[in-house]
Amino acid sequence: MRIAYLAAFLLSTTAVYADDHKHEEHAEQGSHLAELGEVHLLHAWAPASEGGDVLVFMEIENEGHETVTLLGAHAHIAAKVELVGFELKDGHGHYEPLPKLPIAAGAHMTLAPNGVAFQLSGVSEHLHQGDEFALHIEFAAGEIEMMVQVEAAGATQHSHAGHNH
């Protein structure tokens, strides 16, 4: 099951998904957009938490003409950060570490609940709705600092309150 999921995920990153909004429209959104060359990160978010393990989600767009490689991430609020993928095993869902991921030229990848995410382990502080923290995302070509918005506990998507698309 894990191999099938990972293969399906890797293949899905080669497709370009239709999107009603482009990163240019986010340029005025400040902390909702971060860039490294032609790689654009959008809407990083995490649900509120009392610490421990926290999942971070976002959109990644590779607008370039070459594949980029996502290596991992780090954050000052966490002891460890791993790229993880959701796996259903024996009727129970959990996240398993993933290797570095190639993102094809022109691809749009969404890190979302019950899919792929960054898992922050050892978070010692409470994260409240409205807080934000820095996550440093590592690519083979360099590093991007992205501000992560903390949403309500149990949130399943990024809130677009306060900005339009």
Report on the structure:
The protein has 165 residues and is mainly beta. The longest helix is centred in the first third of the chain and has 11 residues, at 2-12. A hairpin with a 2-residue loop joins β5 (80-89) and β6. The protein has one helix at 2-12, and strands at residues 33-36, 39-47, 52-62, 68-74, 80-89, 92-97, 101-103, 108-111, 116-123, 132-139, 142-151. The chain has one domain (2-19, 31-151): PCu(A)C copper chaperone (Immunoglobulin-like, Sandwich), CATH 2.60.40. Strands 1, 2, 3, 4, 5, 6, 7, 8, 9, 10 and 11 form an eleven-stranded mixed β-sheet that branches. Residues 1-29 and 160-165 have low confidence and may be disordered. It is globular, with a radius of gyration of 15 Å. It contains one helix and eleven strands; from the N terminus they run αβββββββββββ.
Any descriptors?
disordered N terminus; Immunoglobulin-like; mainly beta; eleven-stranded mixed β-sheet; 165 residues; disordered C terminus
Q: In terms of topology, how is this protein built?
A:
Blueprint: H1 2-12, E1 33-36, E2 39-47, E3 52-62, E4 68-74, E5 80-89, E6 92-97, E7 101-103, E8 108-111, E9 116-123, E10 132-139, E11 142-151
Parallel strand pairs: 2-11
Antiparallel strand pairs: 1-2, 2-3, 3-8, 3-9, 4-7, 4-10, 5-6, 5-9, 10-11
What structural category do the secondary elements indicate? mainly beta
Morphology call: globular
Low-confidence stretches: 1-29, 160-165
Largest sheet: 11 strands, mixed
Rg calc: 15 Å
Number of helices: 1
Give the % helix.
under 10%
What is the CATH topology assignment? Immunoglobulin-like
Mean pLDDT: 82
CATH architecture name: Sandwich
Give the total of beta strands. 11
Oligomer: single chain
Instruction: Write out the CATH superfamily name.
Output: PCu(A)C copper chaperone
